[in-house]
Amino acid sequence: MKTLLRGLCATRESTKAQCQVLIQLQELLEKKGSEVKDLEKLLKEVLRLTRELRKDLVQVETKLAMHDATLAGFWTAFEVSRNGVLLWEINGYKEKKQEAISGLRTSFYSEGFYSDPHGYLMCARVYLNGDGVGKQTHLSVFFAIKKGKFDDILKWPFGLRVQFSLLHQNGGDPLTDAFRPDPNSSSFKKPTRESNIASGCPLFASQQDVENGGYLKNDKIWIKVTVGQ
């Protein structure tokens, strides 16, 4: 194109000025085209790095959650519940929920507790901004079997009823939900690693009810997990 324009300028003196303008315009377009290609390459690289960073964040989040469970178990080793009831105080609700919304940390674990003095070791997991079908609309609560001291003398699969309760902090009724374990689910088999995959209630409580129904007070909520026949 540029060669054709130069030839036209050389043969027609009357259009020489116009041709020079067209040549300059063509050169500018070629330069901009090259810059656009460079920007496209840069954008592709940024997207690739973003995907890798997202994967790394998920791995870090999982490790942090498991670290929480391990650390909580260490500090409460001598005062862990052994009657099948976990009373879980979750402080810093607003900050933790914002971390969940941003994707920095979507969930965290409770300390471990036992179904009875020589029973199953268990814990709870909460997603303040929801998980699965409850994401962005509900508070999701899950239950997990952990590898415990008495596993070799217990009956498997785990079959005890699990009930979650969000406690009202102004004398009202708790929000509750419960389930019985699926004996065919790997979540309730004898653990072969530190913790089985958690199972529970993704639609446990709407965030609107949690935050405006008397269940959130002084930036904290209380979750009760009851395990029994």
Please give the structural blueprint.
Elements (H helix, E strand, L loop, with lengths): L1 H10 L4 H60 L9 E7 L1 H10 L5 E2 L3 E2 L6 E7 L10 E9 L14 E6 L8 E5 L19 E8 H6 L7 E9 L1
Antiparallel strand pairs: 1-9, 2-4, 3-4, 4-5, 5-8, 6-7, 6-9
Helix pairs in contact: 1-2
InterPro entries: MATH/TRAF_dom, TRAF-like, TRAF1-6_MATH_dom
GO molecular function: tumor necrosis factor receptor binding
Organism: Stichopus japonicus (Sea cucumber)
Question: Which key phrases capture this entry?
Answer:
alpha+beta; Apoptosis, Tumor Necrosis Factor Receptor Associated Protein 2, Chain A; five-stranded antiparallel beta sheet; four-stranded antiparallel beta sheet; coiled coil; MATH/TRAF_dom; Chain A, Key Contacts Promote Recongnito Of Baff-R By Traf3; TRAF-like
CATH uppermost class of the largest domain:
Mainly Beta
The CATH architecture of the largest domain comes to Sandwich
The fourth-level CATH homologous superfamily of the largest domain is: Apoptosis, Tumor Necrosis Factor Receptor Associated Protein 2, Chain A
The overall average pLDDT, rounded, is 86
User: What is the total number of structural domains?
Assistant: 2
What share of the residues lie within helices? 25-40%
Overall structural class, as computed from helix and strand content, comes to: alpha+beta
| Tally of individual helices | 4
Give the N-terminus to C-terminus distance in angstroms: 84 Å
Biased composition (Polar residues): 183-194
GO biological process, one term: regulation of canonical NF-kappaB signal transduction
Pfam family, one: TRAF-mep_MATH
Domain MATH: 83-227
